[in-house]
Amino acid sequence: MFEALNAAILSAASSPWIYVLIVGVVFADAILPPVPSETVVVAAAALGVSTGQPIIWLVIIFAAVGAIAGDNLTFWIGRKLGLSRFRWMRNAGSVRAFEWARAGLDKRAGVLITTGRYIPVGRVAVNLTAGSTGFSYRRFVPLSIVAGLSWSLYSVGVGLVAGAWFRETPLLGVTVGVVFAIVVGVVIDRISSARTRFRIAAAANAAETPALQSTARQ
Question: CA-based angle 88:102:129, to the nearest 5?
Answer without folding.
Answer: 50
